[in-house]
C-alpha cells in the first residue's frame, strides 16, 4: 500500500539545506593544504577514514567533535573556493568545475556523519550543534553561490559550452551548476545579495528550530492512558509495549501510546474504545499546536512568508515557481494539472467509502457517522467483511530479518545479481544498526549498506535513505548507504514482526538504496540520488512492486513459528484488497500535496497572521472530503516541506508513483519481466544514471515513450469507480 509510510530520499547533500551538492562528495585522499588547515580542529574528520569504503569510524567520533569539524570544513572549503575563483588562468572545466567538485572534503565527512546521527539518534548536545551550524552552513552556501568571480568563471564556460567538447556528463554538470548559481542569486546586485543572505540565514535557523520542536513535540505528545481496558482491541504485545513505554517515561502503572509522524496513527485501526481513538487522533493533530514551547505555527507562517520574499527577490512570482526549475515537472501549473486528474475520481471514491463505513457503524449498533479517528477502525471491519482479510492474520508471516534478507535482498539478487554479507567489524552509531557488504553481479565489492530499522524517542519520524559516502569516479569512492525506518521494536523475547505497510516501506527504502548503490558517475554532484525531488522517488516506488511478486513473496513470507509459506489464499486476499480504501490512502497524500502547493503560492509581502486559518481555507477549497480524510500531515507537523527539502515538492510522491506504475507495467509487459536481463536493463538506463541526463529523456530511453497515468489509475482502483 504505497504512501502509508513516510519516505525521504536524504542523500548527504540533500540532508543539509542550502549547501551545494558538490560539498558532499567523499575524496579518497585530502590535499595536503586541506588536511593541514583542518587538522587542528577537524579531529576524526581531518583525514579520510581508514575503514572499508571510507565508512565513518564511530568509535573515534564524539558529540563534541562535530561542531569544530564542520567549522574547520567550512573554513577549508572557503579557502579552496577562493583559490578557484582567483585562479589567474582562463577558466577550464578542470580548473573550475572539477576543482569545485573536489573541494570541501572535511566538510563532507563531518556533515555526512553528523546529519545522519542527528536524524536517527539525536540528543540535546547534537541538537545544540545543529542549531549552531545551520546558519553557518547557509552562509557558507551563499559565500559560494554569490561569489561574483566564481560565477564569472562558471558563466564563461556555460556561454562557450558549444565549443568545449565536453562529455555528456560534463555538459550536464556545467548546465546544472550554472542553473544552481543563477537560482541561488548569482546575478543579483550587491545590495540584493545582502538581502538574500539575510533571508537564507533566517530560513535556515527557522527550519532547524521547526525540526527540533517537532521531534520534541512528537515525543511529548504521546497519549497517556490510565487503564488496560481503554486499550481494548490491541494485542497483548502492543499493550505490554505501551506499559513499557510508560515505565521508561517514569509513569509506571500507566500506558503510553507514542505518536508516529503522520496525522493518522496505526493503532487507530485496532482500538475498539472510540474515546481512546479520539484522544489518540487529537493528540496527533495537535502535537505542535498547544501554544507551548513546541508550538510551530508561527514558525511555519514565517517560513512561508520569507520563502515568498526570497522568490520575489530572485524574480519569481512565488516560491513554488522558484524551486521547480530543475525538476521533471517544470511549473506549479503542470503539477496542479496532474493532480487535478486525480481529484474528481478521488472525491467520488471518498463519498462511496464514507457511506460504506457509515453503514458498518450502523450495523454495529453505532448512532454516529464516521469521523477521522473512526475511519481506519471501520475500514478494517469493511475490509474483513469484503475480503475476509484480518491484518493480524497477515503479520505473523513477516519477520523483519527474513523480510530483509529473504525478501528485499533476494529481489535484488534476482533482478541485479547482488549478494550481501553481514559484517560485525564496522562501528555503528547505535546497537540496533547492522551493516552489510554489498557485492556486485561479478562478485566485486560494490558498497556498504547500513540498516537501522527500529523506532526510538530520539529518532525523527518516518523512513529515509542517505549516504555516508557518495560514489564518484573522480574521487575514487564507492557508496556507503543507510536505510532508516521506525518499526516499533518488539518486547524482550517477542518475535520482531512487522506490518504489511512496514514490508512495503522496507522495499521502498531499499529502492532508494539501489539508486545510490548503482550510482556510476564521475562527479559527486550528479551521483546516485542527487536528482530532482520529482524523480528521486521513482526508483523507490518501482521497487515496492517486487514485494508482491509471487516468487519473491514465497521466499520471505514465512510464519515465524511454523516456517510455513503464507497461503496462496491469504495472499490472494491481500492482492484483491489492494484497491480498498483508496479514497483515504490516496486522498490523504493528494490533500497534503495540494496544501503544500497552497503554502508556496504565497506572494511576496503577503502575511499569514493565523496559520490555522490559512490551512483551513486551503483545505476547504480542495473539493475533497478533508473533514473526513485529513491531509497526511497537517501544516504544523509537515516536516517534509518545512525542513526536508520537499517545499512545493510533495506532489513528487504522486508523480513518481505514476512513473513507477508505468515503468513496472512496461517491465512486465514488454521489458522482460522478473529476469536478470530486465533488471540489468533497468539498472543501465535508470538506476545507474543519477542526474547525468534530462529525466524525461532518461525515461524515454527506458520505455520508448513518456510515462502515462493509466497504470496508476488502475492500480489505485480509480478507473470507472472500481
UniProtKB/TrEMBL annotation:
Q: Where in the cell is it found?
A: Cytoplasm
- The answer to keyword Metal-binding applying to this record is yes
**Catalytic reaction annotation:** Hydrolysis of unblocked, C-terminal dipeptides from oligopeptides, with broad specificity. Does not hydrolyze bonds in which P1' is Pro, or both P1 and P1' are Gly
Might you name a Gene Ontology BP term for this protein? proteolysis
What organism does the record attribute this protein to? Caenibius tardaugens NBRC 16725
| Chief localization | cytoplasm
* UniProt entry keywords in alphabetical sequence: Carboxypeptidase, Cytoplasm, Hydrolase, Metal-binding, Metalloprotease, Protease, Signal, Zinc
The protein's name is: Dipeptidyl carboxypeptidase
Q: Where is the signal peptide?
A: 1-25
Amino acid at each position: 500500500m504505497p504512501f502509508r509510510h513516510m519516505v525521504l530520499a536524504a542523500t548527504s547533500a540533500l540532508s543539509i539545506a542550502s549547501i551545494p551538492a558538490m560539498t558532499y562528495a567523499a575524496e579518497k585522499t585530502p590535499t595536503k593544504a586541506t588536511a593541514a588547515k583542518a587538522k587542528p580542529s577537524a579531529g576524526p574528520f581531518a583525514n579520510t577514514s581508514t575503514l572499508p569504503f571510507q565508512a565513518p569510524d564511530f568509535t573515534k567520533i564524539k558529540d563534541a567533535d562535530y561542531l569544530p569539524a564542520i567549522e574547520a570544513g567550512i573554513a577549508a572549503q572557503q579557502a579552496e573556493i577562493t583559490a578557484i575563483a582567483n585562479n589567474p588562468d582562463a577558466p577550464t572545466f578542470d580548473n573550475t568545475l572539477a576543482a569545485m567538485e573536489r573541494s570541501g572534503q572535511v566538510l563532507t565527512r563531518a556533515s555526512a556523519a553528523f546529519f545522519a546521527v542527528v536524524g536517527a539518534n539525536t540528543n540535546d548536545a547534537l541538537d545544540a550543534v545543529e542549531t549552531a551550524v545551520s546558519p553557518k552552513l547557509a552562509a557558507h552556501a551563499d559565500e559560494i553561490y554569490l561569489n561574483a568571480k566564481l560565477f564569472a568563471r562558471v558563466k564563461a564556460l556555460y556561454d562557450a559550452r558549444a565549443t568545449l567538447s565536453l562529455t555528456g556528463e560534463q555538459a550536464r554538470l556545467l548546465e546544472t551548476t550554472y542553473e544552481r548559481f543563477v537560482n541561488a542569486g548569482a546575478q543579483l546586485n550587491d545590495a540584493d545579495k545582502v538581502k538574500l543572505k539575510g533571508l537564507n540565514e533566517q530560513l535556515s535557523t527557522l527550519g532547524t528550530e521547526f525540526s527540533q520542536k517537532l521531534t520534541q513535540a512528537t515525543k511529548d505528545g504521546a497519549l497517556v492512558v490510565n487503564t488496560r481496558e481503554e486499550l481494548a482491541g490491541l494485542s497483548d504485545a502492543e499493550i505490554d509495549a505501551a506499559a513499557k513505554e510508560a515505565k521508561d517515561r517514569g509513569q509506571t502503572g500507566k500506558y503510553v501510546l507514542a505518536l508516529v509522524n503522520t496525522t493518522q496513527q496505526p493503532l487507530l485501526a485496532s482500538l475498539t474504545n472510540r474515546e481512546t481513538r479520539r484522544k489518540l487522533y487529537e493528540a496527533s493533530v495537535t502535537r505542535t499546536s498547544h501554544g507551548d514551547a513546541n508550538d510551530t505555527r508561527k514558525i511555519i507562517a514565517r517560513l512561508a512568508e520569507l520563502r515568498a520574499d526570497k522568490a520575489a527577490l530572485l524574480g519569481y512570482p512565488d516560491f513554488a515557481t522558484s524551486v521547480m526549475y530543475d525538476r521533471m515537472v517544470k511549473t506549479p501549473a503542470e503539477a496542479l494539472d496532474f493532480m487535478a486528474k486525480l481529484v474528481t475520481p478521488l472525491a467520488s471514491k471518498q463519498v462511496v467509502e464514507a457511506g460504506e463505513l457509515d453503514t458498518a457503524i450502523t450495523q454495529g449498533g453505532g448512532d454516529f457517522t464516521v469521523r477521522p479517528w473512526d475511519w481506519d477502525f471501520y475500514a478494517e471491519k469493511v475490509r474483513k467483511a469484503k475480503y475476509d482479510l484480518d491484518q493480524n492474520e497477515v503479520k505473523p508471516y513477516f519477520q523483519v530479518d527474513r523480510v530483509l534478507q529473504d525478501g528485499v535482498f533476494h529481489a535484488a539478487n534476482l533482478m541485479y545479481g547482488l549478494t550481501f554479507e553481514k559484517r560485525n567489524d564496522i562501528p555503528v552509531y547505535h546497537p540496533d544498526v547492522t551493516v552489510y557488504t554489498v557485492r556486485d553481479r561479478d562478485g566485486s565489492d560494490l558498497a556498504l549498506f547500513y540498516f537501522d530499522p527500529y523506532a526510538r524517542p530520539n529518532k525523527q519520524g518516518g523512513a529515509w535513505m542517505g549516504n555516508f559516502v557518495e560514489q564518484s569516479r573522480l574521487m575514487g569512492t564507492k557508496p556507503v548507504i543507510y536505510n532508516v525506518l521506525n518499526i516499533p521494536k518488539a518486547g524482550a523475547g517477542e518475535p520482531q514482526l512487522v506490518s504489511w505497510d512496514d514490508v512495503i516501506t522496507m522495499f521502498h527504502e531499499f529502492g532508494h538504496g539501489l539508486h545510490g548503490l548503482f550510482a556510476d558517475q564521475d562527479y559527486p554532484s550528479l551521483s546516485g540520488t542527487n536528482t530532482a525531488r520529482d524523480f528521486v522517488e521513482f526508483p523507490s516506488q518501482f521497487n515496492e512492486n517486487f514485494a508482491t511478486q509471487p516468487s519473491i513473496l514465497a521466499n520471505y513470507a514465512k510464519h515465524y513459528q511454523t516456517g510455513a509459506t503464507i497461503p496462496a489464499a491469504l495472499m490472494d486476499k491481500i492482492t484483491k484488497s489492494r484497491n480498498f480504501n483508496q479514497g483515504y490512502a490516496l486522498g490523504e497524500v493528494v490533500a497534503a500535496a495540494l496544501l503544500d502547493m497552497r503554502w508556496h503560492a504565497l506572494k511576496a509581502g503577503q502575511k499569514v497572521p493565523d496559520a490555522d486559518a490559512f490551512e483551513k481555507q486551503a483545505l476547504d477549497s480542495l473539493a475533497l472530503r478533508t473533514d473526513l480524510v485529513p491531509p497526511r500531515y497537517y501544516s504544523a507537523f509537515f516536516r517534509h516541506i518545512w525542513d526536508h527539502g520537499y517545499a512545493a515538492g510533495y506532489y513528487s510522491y504522486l508523480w513518481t508513483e505514476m512513473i513507477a506504475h508505468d515503468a513496472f507495467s512496461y517491465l512486465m509487459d514488454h521489458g522482460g519481466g522478473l529476469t536478470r536481463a530486465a533488471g540489468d536493463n533497468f539498472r543501465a538506463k535508470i538506476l545507474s544514471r543519477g542526474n547525468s541526463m534530462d529525466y524525461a529523456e532518461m525515461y524515454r530511453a527506458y520505455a520508448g515513450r513518456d510515462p502515462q497515468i493509466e497504470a496508476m489509475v488502475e492500480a489505485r482502483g480509480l478507473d470507472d469507480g472500481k
